[in-house]
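Lay summary

Proteins are chains of building blocks that fold into shapes. Our project writes down both the chain and a compact code for its shape. Here are two examples, one after the other.
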Amino acid sequence: MPGPIFPGPGTAERHDHHQCQPGTGDDEDEDRAGMSEGFDRLWAELQPLGRNRTTGGYRRFSWGEADADVRAWFTDAAAARGLTVETDRNGNLWAWWGDPGPDAVVTGSHLDSVPDGGAFDGPLGVVSALAAVDELKRRGVRPDRPFAVTVFVEEEGARFGVPCLGSRLLTGAITAERALGLTDADGVTWERAMEQAGHDPARIGADPDLLGRIGVFIELHVEQGTALIHTDSAVGVAGSVWPHGRWRMDFTGQGDHAGTTRLADRKDPMLPFAQTVLAARAAAKAHDAVATIGKVHVAPNGTNAIPSRVRTWLDARAPDEATLRAVVDHVDAAARSAAAAHDVFHARYEESYTPVVDLDAALRDRVASVIGTADRPVPVLPTGAGHDAGVLASSVPTAMVFVRNPTGISHAPQEFARPDDCHQGVTALADVLADLLAEGRRGAETPGAAGRG
């Protein structure tokens, strides 16, 4: 039968499979081949689910049909490995190796996507976690601590607008009341969507008992940039997560006829919106940050009608919180000025905000020491992307492992990771997990114990 498909950096292009690093003996070669085949098999099972055949991207939105498919896939794959799967009150999935308990080592990521997103953002971490379980069992590892693989719901925020919603609910970073009222583009609430998917929304909210089980969290993720390309490294470790947020802006004018309304008489919200897009670019450039306006809703959205309202979203990120606030304030001031000049009403709403996250230094250094060598230390990278690990970091020690992306592109079909780099990522993750699982229950040297003091 044909080998598994790794979506390449285009909708048609495919990369040849690269050989893994040579082993030191026949047994090691066989073990490495077994791990590679296990990962490839899991990847081949998952990659068709939720894929848009026209664009080559993925449309896996929380509580939709594709989401149900990938959740079922994970449940089956975990059960096939002897893991016990449970769904928490917020819809996150947990696959336990042995009995759940305190001071657990947890790894995983997410399976949802942005509209027409890439194959690797999120799923690489989940598939690698399951493949790492296979690798640990192949090595004869018997965990001395509870262990789980997790899948967080609505990490991208693509359907309901708030990223990392599953981990935010778990930690109490967002209230149940606000989450229940979130709506998608069709006006369907989180509460209703959860019900339609067969879950009870009345139970959602902070879960201190479950959160208290987590001793340490490790998230493997495809790199969403080019740092590992420039360092010629297959894997890296995250040092910090930039502060970031999403702000909704509404420009409200007067809908009217495109042919009979004089320019001087118009209250066209599209004009201040357009000026705001340019202002966002200028503000980001001036402050050495990033800002994006990539989503817009126009009402009534007619070719021959002057818009009555333009609703858009600003995504902004910066190395520190003061810079981020300066960018947002710059954009907001420009939007208000442009709106006033065109006799249009402007309003801004903060939908989500995540402060700067410095991942646990002791755990980061430990992960780096396990993965790297004295001759070739592993790169430690900052990241401008938000992750569930960043949300959990305020409650439990967390670390992230990045796998090289040769295109440097993410949130698009061209997102990619070569098979041999994926395999090295699994090996690195398994090494880290084996090191953590060997500690036994909470002890003096556990990162979990140190991080909670």
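And here is the second example, written the same way.
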Amino acid sequence: MAQVDMYLHNLYRVQPDFVYSVSRDFARSCQTPMLVMPDDTPAHSYQVAVDIASLAPNAEVTVYPWKEPPELKARTVNRVRTFLKAHQPATAMR
């Protein structure tokens, strides 16, 4: 149980205003393309999504909200597919 508590502490309490796995400096320097799909739940705040999208130089962002209506969700799914196809690793393109 102590290990779970430590994980939750690191996940939500150490940097509660940002993501648990990287710093703002890392996000700012990350050259990897990323697609940010904003949400607004306690675990995935809208503000953090906006921050990541604005910090990461190769970030793209979907509309928010993107889950409803069904037509918008379908367009967002297509956007994800397009993003993934455009950013396949060279070895995957063979």
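What can we say about the second shape? The mean pLDDT is 88.
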